[in-house]
Amino acid sequence: MSIKNKVRKLLDEKEFGRIAELAESEKGVVRYLFSFLYSTDDLLHWQAAEALGAVAARQAGQKGPAAEGGRNIPRRLIWSLAEESGATAFPATEALGAVASASPNNFPDFGRIVLSFMDDPTLRRGVLWSARKIAEKRPDLVWDSVPKIIELLADPDPTIRGHAAWVLGATQDETVIDKLKALENDEGPLYIYENEELHETTVGQLAKRSIEELRRKFKIN
Question: Among 16, 61, 177, 203, fewest CB within 10 Å belongs to which?
Answer without folding.
Answer: 61
